[in-house]
Each structure stands twice: as structure tokens, then as C-alpha cells.
TrEMBL record:
Name of the protein in its database record: Glycine/betaine ABC transporter substrate-binding protein
Cellular-component GO terms for this entry: ATP-binding cassette (ABC) transporter complex
Domain of life, source organism: Bacteria
Coiled coil regions, renumbered to chain: none
SUPFAM superfamilies membership: Periplasmic binding protein-like II
Keywords: Signal
Pfam family, one: OpuAC
Residue ranges constituting the ABC-type glycine betaine transport system substrate-binding domain according to the UniProt record: 35-298
Length: 312
């Protein structure tokens, strides 16, 4: 009985020692004299996410460089270490190089950004009076809805505003798969898509279109998302699903900058907040760094857990 109590005492003492050691352990900052090079991709949402990460890394004492990078070429830079990290990778658009360098363990996926993405068919909310039954896709098949969306260009079909032609047209495939009386008309550009959405809202002119989020246009225009028709085949051409967005680092990142690695693993991005900042930059002409700094100054409660994760 006595020996059992002694063993219990030893076990408790060891547990307390291990707990104290764990509490005292912090992630090492690593090579703070060498800059962390963050990939700056083509779209404003990625600029926002990247600059938030960068400003917070600077609060942790790191040097940060923002390096302009193409969506596909960035993976070569991440693989050879000339880029350190990319914090907003949309996994529906990574080309052939991403799975190759991931399999070769030249890059590391450090988890979800938790950015709530959307992609599919949208309409200005007033369309629910024009096509009763929306957001269910079958409402689009009603004769009064087809007629309202018909134009001289598409009659007797309704007009569906699609992505620009060089982006590919999954919408046209889905319309054909489901025998819907619509013609997909490509927009000239992203700007043209947004301009039509804004014009439709202002004039209350009928519109159904392909779109995605987060996007600054969704911060100022109230839209509905159509419940999509069933997929004919489980392929990219026949199905539209919201893409995952992950954070990717060079394979040597964790060893070189341990605390920064812990921070980036914890780092998240809220889509609604991102859209507000995109609107400020793209439509209101505000400086990106200033917009991000204002968010950081006002949202310590949001980002403090990420910074705490870096400190152990």
C-alpha cells in the first residue's frame, strides 16, 4: 500500500513537471534577420489576406516582403524557397504543378484559410418577384421567367450572363444538361460582369449570371444564390461547388521560422470582412496597407489567438 502511494506521488510530480515544461515552451522565432517572402497574387482578396498576415508577422518581429507572383508560377517559387508562403490558394485553380510539388514534399499545405467561398448562379434579389420560386433553379423554367430574361440576342431563349469566354463555360454545359431554355452569353471581362450586376440593380432589369465570392460587388449588392440543378456527371464541367482555400508554405518554412509557421497555421480569413476591405480598395480607391492596418487596429480580439499560437 505504501509503495503504491509513493508511485502515485512520483507520477503526479512527473505530470506537474511536464505541464510546467509545456507551459514554458514557446515557438522559436528562427531567422528573424531574413525576410519572409509572401506571394502576392492577382486578385484583391488575396492582397487583403496576404497583407493582414504580413502586418501581423511584422508585429511578431519578422521582416516581410511582398512578391508579385502568378497563380501557377508561384508553386515553382514555393518549391525552391524563393517564395516563403502563399496564404490564399484556391484549390480549384492550381494547375498541374501544385500536386506534383506537393507529392515531392517541396511545399507543405498547412491547412484551411477558412474563407467561405461561393460560386454559382446569382440574381439581384428583386428577381424573386419576376421569377417566383427562386432561389430554386426550377423557377427559371417558368415561361414568364424565360420571357423576362429574353433579349433580341437570345429570343426565344432567356439570356444567361456567363463568365468571359476565356474562363471556360460550365454554365452553358449545365443549361444544356438540364434542357433549360437559356443561351449563355459571355461577359467581356470581370468588370463587365460587375457593371451588369450594378446596372440591373439600379434599373431593376432582369438578370441571372455566373459569379463567385468573396467579391467586393457582394458587399454592396444584395443577391440570391440559385440552388443549382443536379449534376449530370461528377466532373468540373458538369458541377459547380465552392472551392476550398488553403495556405501553402515552402517545405523548409517551419524549420526556418517556427513561430511564424505556428502563426500561419492559426491564421484565418472571414469572407464578409474581406469583401468589405476589397470594396474599400477596389471601389473607394483607398490604400491597401491603410485599409488592412485599420482592420488590424480594430480587431485585436480576432487576431490575438493567432499571434498567441506563435508564442506558444
Amino acid at each position: 500500500m505504501k509503495s503504491t502511494n509513493v508511485l502515485k506521488g512520483v507520477g503526479i510530480g512527473l505530470a506537474l513537471l511536464l505541464a510546467a515544461t509545456a507551459q514554458g515552451r514557446t515557438a522559436e522565432p528562427g531567422a528573424k534577420d531574413e525576410p519572409i517572402k509572401l506571394a502576392m497574387l492577382e486578385w484583391t482578396g488575396a492582397h487583403v489576406s496576404t497583407h493582414i498576415a504580413g502586418q501581423l508577422l511584422e508585429k511578431l518581429g519578422y521582416k516581410v516582403e511582398y512578391v508579385t507572383a502568378g497563380n501557377f508560377p508561384q508553386f515553382s517559387g514555393l518549391a525552391d524557397g524563393s517564395l516563403s508562403a502563399s496564404v490564399e490558394i484556391w484549390l480549384n485553380n492550381v494547375g498541374d504543378i501544385y500536386p506534383k510539388v506537393l507529392a515531392e514534399k517541396k511545399i507543405e499545405d498547412i491547412g484551411k484559410l477558412d474563407l467561405k467561398t461561393q460560386e454559382g448562379w446569382i440574381y439581384p434579389k428583386f428577381m424573386e418577384k419576376v421569377c417566383p420560386g427562386l432561389p430554386d433553379w426550377t423557377a427559371l423554367n417558368k415561361p414568364e421567367c424565360i420571357q423576362a430574361l429574353s433579349t433580341p440576342e437570345t429570343a426565344p431563349n432567356g439570356r444567361f450572363l456567363d463568365y468571359p469566354a476565356d474562363w471556360g463555360s460550365r454554365a452553358a454545359t449545365i443549361l444544356a444538361d438540364n434542357n433549360m431554355q437559356y443561351t449563355a452569353v459571355p461577359a467581356g471581362s470581370e468588370g463587365a460582369l460587375v457593371a451588369e450586376l450594378e446596372a440591373s440593380e439600379a434599373a431593376k432589369s432582369p438578370l441571372v449570371m455566373m459569379f463567385w465570392g468573396p467579391h467586393y460587388a457582394l458587399a454592396k449588392n444584395e443577391v440570391g444564390w440559385i440552388t443549382m440543378p443536379p449534376c449530370k456527371e461528377q466532373t468540373n464541367e458538369h458541377c459547380i461547388t465552392p472551392p476550398d482555400v488553403d495556405k501553402i508554405v515552402w517545405s523548409g518554412f517551419g524549420a526556418k521560422w517556427p513561430a511564424a509557421y505556428a502563426f500561419l497555421k492559426a491564421f484565418k480569413m472571414d469572407a464578409t470582412e474581406q469583401q468589405k476591405m476589397m470594396l474599400a480598395v477596389d471601389k473607394e480607391g483607398k490604400d491597401l496597407d491603410a485599409v488592412v492596418k485599420e482592420w488590424v487596429d480594430k480587431n485585436e480580439a480576432v487576431w490575438k489567438p493567432w499571434v498567441d499560437a506563435a508564442k506558444g
